[in-house]
Amino acid sequence: MAAAGAPDGMEEPGMDTEAETVATEAPARPLNCAEAEAAVGMAAEDSGAARDSLQPAPAQPPGDPAAQASVSNGEDAGGGAGKELVDLKIIWNKTKHDVKVPLDSTGSELKQKIHSITGLPPAMQKVMYKGLVPEDKTLREIKVTSGAKIMVVGSTINDVLAVNTPKDAVQQDAKAEENKKEPLCRQKQHRKVLDKGKPEDVMPSVKGAQERLPTVPLSGMYNKSGGKVRLTFKLEQDQLWIGTKERTEKLPMGSIKNVVSEPIEGHEDYHMMAFQLGPTEASYYWVYWVPTQYVDAIKDTVLGKWQYF
């Protein structure tokens, strides 16, 4: 019902305005109890509907999984759906990255994941978990467990070119010198150690095999002075510990410029090996009676597969 005297063209007032007009005008007759209750009920319904239309939509509860996005380093949303995942701590350049990866990922796929997190190309990565992680084996096969620490060592291409060019030249010169000389095991300086014979506690060798580094130190070997020596590879610190009866030298692997080795004549299942600690041959630290199955693993761990010698 339009209010009296309302100009043409104006919208008809709402229910609230009509209620106010009726309240101020004297009714034609008094309302009985039933009519009064009905009128009050209609007004309450209209008022409640107006309030509901003004209220905002309810916010999603904070604990609702749909309202929360799971974000982790380099992890694709839904990438592990239907797969058994394992929590890993990727440690590179003193920085830790928490990631989830499928337990059946290969070492090669893990390198791709690390590349997405750090920007470090897979070819430049040295990935270690109880030794170098094989690219063709799954994390399940090498018994990686949830919460495991994966150590990554490597540099960008620009860093390698800037730092290692002089180093490569030193190694090439050293190789050229070695080729001119007689076999190392025949040289006088080495013969005096080798002539002592094989140490009684030397570790067993497996000729023609290649194995990952054991979880215990390599022991039962001689150094240049004929004393007992052991090698401990501290992968988390990226260090090689050379221990003797007198002391233990803790060497950053990045400081070792080269690793050379040669089978021992008559005992080809064992090698003599040297770690080059400086620019000249005088800096070689010699170790004798290294089991042949660990030679490649030692070189890969110290130098990394991405270095070309």
TrEMBL record:
Cited InterPro entries: UBFD1, UBFD1_C, Ubiquitin-like_dom, Ubiquitin-like_domsf, Ubiquitin_CS
Molecular functions per Gene Ontology: cadherin binding; RNA binding
Domain of life of the organism encoding this protein: Eukaryota
Biased composition (Acidic residues): 9-19
PROSITE patterns associated with the record: UBIQUITIN_1, UBIQUITIN_2
Low complexity bias spans: 34-45
Region annotation (Disordered) ranges: 1-80
Coiled-coil region list: none
SUPFAM superfamilies xref list: Ubiquitin-like
Pfam families hit by this protein: PH_UBFD1_C, ubiquitin
Domain Ubiquitin-like per the UniProt entry, residue ranges: 86-153
PANTHER family, sorted: UBIQUITIN DOMAIN-CONTAINING PROTEIN UBFD1
The protein's name in its UniProt record: Ubiquitin domain-containing protein UBFD1
Lineage of origin: Eukaryota, Metazoa, Chordata, Craniata, Vertebrata
